[in-house]
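Subject: design request, 53 residues
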């Protein structure tokens, strides 16, 4: 029983690590797309820090 629980936990950890890696890659892709769009269209897309509304 304990062995089965350990296997389930290891599988869950592996699944979560894959999801994290996918999310990190997606964040990099979106950031790169924004960088390219800002450069190509010469417009600020990202909100600048310390700006007042």
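Subject: RE: design request

Done. Sequence follows.
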């Amino acid at each position: 029983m304990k062995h089965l629980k350990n296997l389930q936990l290891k599988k869950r950890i592996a699944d979560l690590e894959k999801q994290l890696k996918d999310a990190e890659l997606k964040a990099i892709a979106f950031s790169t797309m924004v960088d390219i769009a800002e450069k190509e269209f010469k417009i600020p897309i990202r909100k600048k820090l310390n700006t007042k509304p």
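DSSP finds one helix and no strands in the chain.
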